[in-house]
Structure formats: C-alpha cells, structure tokens
From TrEMBL:
Organism in which the protein naturally occurs: marine metagenome
Source organism phylogeny: unclassified sequences, metagenomes, ecological metagenomes
Name the record gives this protein: MalT-like TPR region domain-containing protein
Length: 322
C-alpha cells in the first residue's frame, strides 16, 4: 500500500518517479515486502513439520523461490537456498536437498554451518552404525551421539527414515551405560518417532509412556513391568519417577494391590515430587478399602491421610467413589 501511495503521489512526473525509485525509502519498502515473504515461508515450513497442514510445503517453496530471485538482497536469497533444501528434504528429494545445502555450505554466511550440519546428517542416514558392546565413551563422544540421534529423530518423516539410524546411536549409548535419565527425558520428546525401534530397555519405557498417554493401561503396565525387570536396582532408583507412572497405569487398570506393591518399592525422597507419591498411595489405599477393606485397611487409609497433611485430597476421594 505504501508503495502504491508513493507512486500515485509522484504521478506522471518522471523525475519524481526516478527519485522515488532510487530513494532509501523505496529500497526499505522492497526489502520489507521480500522479508515478509521470506519469513512467512519459514513459518509455513515449520508448521508443516509440526502438523503437516496441507498446502504449507508448496506455499513455502513458492515463497523461497520468489525471494531466491531477489539478488539485490543476497542474505534473503542465500537463506532461500537453505529453505529450498529443507522443502526438498521434506518430500524425500535427497539429492536436490544436497545441492541446495551444498550451495549454502560453500558461502561464508552464518547459515553455512547449518547447511554443513544437514549434509553431515544426510551422510549419517546413509551409513549404518556398528553396535559396539562394552565400549567406553568419553562425555564428548556420548554428547555427540545423543545430538546426532535427536537431530535424526527431528528430521524423521514418512519420506525420510531418521529413526533407524537414531536407534543405532541410542543403542550404543545404552551399551556404554551413557543413556542417563536426562538423555531419556530429552529422547521422550520424540516418542512417536523412536517407538518400535530396538534401543534396549528404554524401548519398553518409550512404549509404556506412549500407551499411558493413550490410556491403554494394561499395555502400559506390561511395558513398565518389562522395563523395570530389565534394569538394575540402582538404575531403577534413578528412574523412580517412571515407577510412579507405572503405578498410575496400574491404578488405571484397576490393579490396586499391584500398585501398592510398587509403591512399597520406592521412598518419597527418591522422586522429584513427593506429593505425587503420597497422593498415589492415598488413592491406592482408599480404593482397596472401597473394594471391601478391613479394619487394618481403614487404619492404613487414616495414616495416609495424615501423611498427606495439608494437601487437598477431596478431589481424589470424590473421584474414587463417584
């Protein structure tokens, strides 16, 4: 609108028009319009990655192709090379993606590092990783394997299998004893991508978390049971928060006595949120009493209520007997 208004104000006066076209204001308006198309293309590409909204990828590609031709704005043009690489990658056109990434990688701009990383990941996808038993990794090597695995999972799609190569790296971390709780928590952001791949005991945990999220309680209990069976006692303590998840699945499956048995295997100081521990114990004890509890069950329920102290348990009680 601003461009139209300024051209209209100049009318047919060629000198005024020439001065307008050479002015910094005109250049700023042109750059702003081009930048809007450019950044909109990145937003569309990101939305396609998250939700696969129909038409986003094609529209992003058209936007990058438009700014690609604007050689007067080299930053936008070269950034569009990278964007076109990602749009090609999204539909599985690996060689085309490589060609765009190569163009960016050969420049001196900041985006060149991103392009080189993508080229390395493409090489990684095409190279099978050897699973090594009883290997010792340095912290730097472990971090590199994790970063590669997460990057591969982030790029996994129906056109691009990043999960298989990611699983190989995760299994190497597991074999080396480097798949710590913190690493697993980061991994679970890509639960849908890695599920079903062999990554050792953590594969059971991923499946259990997925089943619990979808309220498939019986399936979740089996997966959690397999997970805790396959890890050491010391590691089970490290993953105590996931035993609470196991207990939630058991309660969801109406396996109250098993839930109480699992609660007896951990202490409140082992979990990150002790209040959840006490709430689950209260729920399990109350359910057992509601199912025909004895006087000892009543006493246990009263003791749990005292342990909860000032916590608001009314919502739990009403949910149990509703």
């Amino acid at each position: 609108v601003e461009r139209i208004n300024r051209e209209a104000a100049a009318g047919e006066d060629e000198q005024r028009l020439e001065a307008l076209y050479r002015s910094p204001v005109w250049n700023d308006i042109g750059f702003t319009l081009a930048a809007m198309r450019y950044w909109r293309s990145w937003l569309l590409l990101d939305r396609h990655r998250i939700s696969a909204t129909p038409g986003d990828l094609e529209e992003a590609q058209r936007g990058f192709q438009t700014t690609l031709a604007l050689i007067v704005y080299p930053g936008l043009a070269r950034g569009s090379w990278l964007g076109l690489g990602y749009t090609a990658l999204a539909v599985g056109k690996i060689e085309m993606a490589r060609s765009w990434f190569d163009r960016v990688a050969m420049t001196e701009i900041a985006l060149a590092k991103h392009a080189r990383n993508e080229l390395e990941l493409l090489d990684t996808m095409e190279t099978e990783t050897e699973i090594v038993l009883n290997v010792t990794l340095t912290p730097e090597q472990a971090d590199e394997l994790e970063n590669q695995a997460l990057a591969l999972l982030q790029r996994h799609s129906k056109h691009l299998d990043g999960a298989s190569r990611a699983a190989e790296r995760l299994l190497n971390l597991e074999q080396a004893g480097e798949l710590s709780l913190d690493r697993v928590l980061r991994l679970l952001r890509y639960r849908d991508e890695i599920i079903g791949h062999h990554i050792g005991p953590m594969g059971f945990l991923v499946s259990a978390e997925n089943a619990l999220a979808h309220q498939q309680y019986y399936s979740a209990t089996e997966k959690y049971r397999s997970f805790f069976k396959d890890i050491s006692e010391s590691r089970a303590i490290e993953f105590a928060d996931f035993r609470l998840q196991y207990i939630r699945a058991l309660l969801g499956a109406d396996l109250t006595e098993q839930a109480l048995a699992q609660l007896d295997r951990i202490r409140d100081e082992q979990v990150s949120d002790p209040s959840s521990f006490y709430q689950l114990r209260f729920v399990a004890t109350a359910r057992l009493y509601a199912q025909g509890g004895s006087s000892s069950a009543r006493q246990s329920l009263a003791a749990q209520a005292v342990a909860l102290g000032k916590m608001k348990v009314a919502s739990f009680v009403s949910a149990l007997f509703s």
